[in-house]
Each structure stands twice: as C-alpha cells, then as structure tokens.
Amino acid sequence: MRLPSYNKMKDETNREIKWVAIVATFFVLASLSSATAQRPLPAPRSHLQDFSAEVFEGPTPFIRFVHTNVDDINGFSFAQFLIFPKPGSATRPIKVHYGRSYSEARGYFDSQTGKLIIPIFGLYAGRPNRVTIDLRFTNRFHPIKRLRMLITTPAYDGGTYSHPSVVQPRLPGTTLSYDFILLKNLADPTTPIIIDSDAEVRWVGTAGVGVTSCMMFDNAFYLAWGSQLLRTEFDGRTYVMADYANMGVVDFHHNIDPGRDGMILDVDTVTQTESVNMEVDAGGNILRTWNLADIISDAMIAGGDDPHQFVYRAPVDWFHNNACAYRSSDKSLIVSSRENFVIAVDYDSGIIKWILGDPTKHWYQFPSLRQFSLTLPPGTLPPIGQHALSVPGDQLLLFDDGTGSVFQQPPGETRNYSAPRKYQLDLGARRATEIWHYYADPSVYSPFCSSVYEDAPNNYLIDYTQAGPYIYTGIVALDPSGNVAFNYQYELLGFCATAWNAIQIHWENLNLE
Description:
By secondary structure, this protein is mainly beta. 5% of the residues lie in helices and 39% in strands.
C-alpha cells in the first residue's frame, strides 16, 4: 500500500496556480478545475480584502490548500475557515479553527518566514464554494484579518455515493443536531466517505484502503487495515500508527468504538476469531485487552458447564463480535455477540455482569450463562443478531437485525423485519425494559450489518445496510419529533460493502489545537 504524503508542499514546484485575483469589492476567485479565468461574483457588501492568498489543489476535489503570508508573526494566534452551504441547504457551514501550535506542528506555519498554509477540507465538488478565512492576531486594535473567496473545485463521480436515490430530501427548516455523516465503506478504497445531510459527498478517504473498521478520534480518522492502525488527517495525509502483527493480531474486523480511555479495536488473533478486543490510545499503544473466549470459558467452568460445547478456537466464528460500548455509570464494557447475545463485563476485571439475549438460542441452555440473563417485562423484545451498541443517556441503544445465529445451534428466533431499539437497564432488579423502537413503514428487513446512533437526544441516524433484504443500503434520519428528516438509498455493493455502518460527526465547529 502506498500512503500519500503532502509534507513537502512548500518545495513542490510542479503545482500550477490556476487563477488568483484580489479585487477591492469582489470575492477572490480561485478555480482549480480550469485554467480559464472566471467572472468574479460581487460580495454581499463592499468589502476590502485584508490579505491575499493563492490556492493549490489537494489530494481530492474536497481538499484545497490556501497559501498566504503572515505579516505579524509574533502576534499570529490562529486561522479559521468557513465553508458556506449550497443555496437552499439546511446544513450548517463547515467551520474549522486551526490553532497556531497545531499549524506549526504539522508544518503549515513557518514562524521564521510567516508562510502559512491553510488546509480547506469539506468543499463541495464540481461547483463554486463560498469560503471565508479569518486570521486572528493578539495585541492589535483590529485583531481579525479576513479574506472572502470563491473556490471552484473539479467534479467527482463516486458512483452510487454521488448518485443516491432520494426517497425524501432534507427539507429547509428541518431540525437536526448534526449535518455530517461518516459512511464506513469497504466497496472502494476510499474509507471513510463523509456525506452531508443533503447526501452531498464532502470528503473521501485518501489512505487507499476500503475497510469496515473506522472511527473519528483525536481530530482525525483512524482505520484498521491488515494488522496496522492508520491515521488519516482531514487534510488527506496518512500515517501508520502501529502494527500489531508481533502481538498475534492477524486482522481487524467490524468496528472501532469509543472506549473509556481510547479506542476499542475488534481483532482476530492466531487463536481466536472475532472474540478479542483491544483498547488503544491515539498513538496506537495498547491500554488493555479483553479475550471473550477466556472470560466466558472461566465463567462456564465456575458454573459447572463445559465451555468446549460453546467456545471454540480459530477459525470458528462462535462469538462474532461486531460492536462495543463503554458504560461509565457502572464501569462496564458492553459487547455485541451477533451469534449469541449482548454481554457486559467489568471494564477492568473482565468479570461477567449481565447478558441480554434471545432465550431460545444455544447460550441459554447453559446454567452458567443463564444465571447472568436479564429478565424482559411484557412488551420487551430481546435483540437478535444486533449491531452498533451505544449508551446515550446511560441507556442501551442498538440495531436489532432480527436474524438468528449462523453457527450456534439452536439458532433462536428469526424475524422478518429489523428495528433500532433502546433499553432501560435496571441492574438492581436484573431487568431490561424496551423504552423506544422505530418500526419503518413499510417495514425494512436488513438481516446483517446496519447501525443506529443517537446524537443529541432523539436525533437518530439509521443505516439499513442490506435493506430489502439484499437490495439497497438505506440512510435514514429521524428528527426530535420522530419524523423522517431524510431518506437516501444507495446501490448495495457486495456484502455490506456500501456502508456497513454510519455515524454522525461534527464539522460545524471543529477546533484543532
């Protein structure tokens, strides 16, 4: 794999500056898709630009680099850019703050010469983008220098990602707590793909890999590929943070989830398939490991059962871990086992706390495991083949696929529909009560993969990865009133490959220090 690098931008002489102009009462026009000059658009009001700049192309149409010079080097504090939404859009502008220390550390600000490079990311492709750049200075009567410009980008054709079927567009005035969505795609070597709530592609991965394991963390995207953990910056640069091959890791699978102290990776080892998790920090250093095969085997032996009837060595996929979540109120790691149940263990000791699952599955036949089972009051359904655990408001949210076990027998129940569900956990009473679900009308069955996440209260994003089943991938938003805020359908590429999981991210006020 060849990882792109952009550290030597200052020395590159083969980049052609397409067109730059500073006009007293007009926007700067920077066209990177054509060398032909364009007619300047009038500014909303007469405005004298405070500094000049040149625009250079980036690794994708969604990224451009603005070059300028700072005249007050000692007083320079930060740079900030704003990308305005397209006309008629309900999305908020992308707003990014670059602290001086951040820019210096990444080679974007030269404190000797005053040379400043501002990466602009999240641009619309194939159209002019209205951009405002602010430079902030200390100890000045006028602390802000401002430049308004129009950056025109080349077109981008991402196939189905650029051309979804719009069942319901996001209408102006629709209230949502988020505007940007991370699609965890593996169909193309462009993980991750970022879209906005209008289904416009606003960013694509530059690491050259297509993987399921992806997360936005520490102001970057982390990808798990082979035995390596990669970090891709928003400007497109990618680094190898760690390689875990010498620790027995042979592959990554499914997700990267937020943990108590870092990120939780789903790993395959030489001895276990899809039943080991590692928590690592932003540098890729391992903080702790959970081996569910050992944890469950120890509990079964202590309870008088034979774990060899339930737990198996690699390559048998007896557990099929697909998501994790940290519950801070009781310091628990909650793990989704698609084959069996949702299980909670103590974050530090690994001791089993409770199990939530279908009692008609194989696991329930073992008294050693059944003793951990939470009871379900009338009207509460157990999750089956679930994905995408999270704990908003200390409650358990998940996507209930409704598909029985593939390996473990008996496989338990299989339904003909899927549904996001939320449970209230009363661990004193050993009870889980369903307090919310969403049943699509008409119903949708997505037998594998898929996700649901809640941003602000009652702002949900649902990914029906294999809707139909096996016909399309559906991305649906619910607003705080429970109404469908938008509904987009994408071509299903491979097995869960279009977007096996999708989650909200925030680029409307990003602070990079």
